[in-house]
Amino acid sequence: MPSSARWLGAAGLLPFYLTLLAAWAGPAEWRGIALFALATYGMVILSFLGAVHWGLALRAPEAEAGYAAQRHGLGVLPALIAWAALMLPPVPGLSMLALAILATAAAETLAARRGLVPPEYLRLRWALSLGAALALLGGAATAAGGG
């Protein structure tokens, strides 16, 4: 895994935690916009995760052709879930985004067992997914009055 993927991936967690910090510790009037910013960034990232699989499907060798439908599904489903989550109130919407990011990583784990996802990508994805999910759940807790 290139070092740029690791440090850019880690940098991609910054908006999660900066918006969470703004919602949790900022002035009360920031809370709503910060939680919306957290949700929209979660939506963007979840959609991006799906796009990875669309790209893998398009570049798959002929031996992996039997997995095309599942890969295309995993390419589209995260964006649909993200869109639906953005229309919900903050607590269920942020929770849904967190769970969908983790579910995508779980689906990628199954794909890796079939050799469809590189193991080094999977390790990075779980680390980033856990970081993103924790921030999103922290936002849900903050929205619920826990922060």
UniProtKB/TrEMBL annotation:
Name of the protein this chain belongs to: DUF3429 domain-containing protein
Domain of life: Bacteria
Organism: Paeniroseomonas aquatica
PANTHER family: TRANSMEMBRANE PROTEIN 69
A family per Pfam: DUF3429
UniProt entry tagged with the keyword Transcription regulation: no
Keywords: Membrane, Transmembrane, Transmembrane helix
InterPro entries in UniProt: DUF3429
TM helices/strands, residue ranges: 35-56, 124-144
